[in-house]
Amino acid sequence: MPEIPFTRVVSVSSEDPRHPAQNLLQPDDGGHWRSEKAGEKQISVVLELPGDRPIHSLHIGNDGSAFVEVLVGTAAGGDFQVLLPTAAFMTPSESRGGTGTAPGGGEGGLRRVRIFGPDTLVKGGVGRSWDRLRIVCTQPYCQTRPYGLSFIRIFSSPEDNDPP
Fold it and tell me: GO CC terms for this protein (predicted)?
């Protein structure tokens, strides 16, 4: 499946100057996007895609968000449509404790990675062409740490001539 790169950050509701949303444009560089301060209940970012592209799957790396929702839209306007309904990345206890399910009680929840294929994405959004992606991260359980994403990667449909 070919990866669809992001071209720019269109807008962001909150960002830590040390961990700006711009980091999401280079997922291999290890930069994160985090809220500006602890205690923000919800943050969002809109990313631009290079032209109208159909989306087949998403890979999302968490950085302390309890929930993540992904919406799609176009530069031409109109409302964003849900592509990935709100997905849980951390339980309330993981959120409050800053821990997760990693062996030895490490940061499994904080750094959890989830992959969403066409079977988990909203059917109306899969296969249609989009040039905007809006990511909404929520953390209602912990007021002591900034949160966001480690990365997000999106992929188009496998080509018919691609090897399996």
Answer: nucleus
What gap in Å lies between CA 59 and CA 61, rounded to an integer?
Answer: 7
pTM for the structure as a whole: 0.88
8 Å CB contact between 90 and 62: yes
> Which domains does the chain show, CATH number per domain?
3-98+108-155 (2.60.120.260)
* Residue 35 tokens, joined: 């809220």
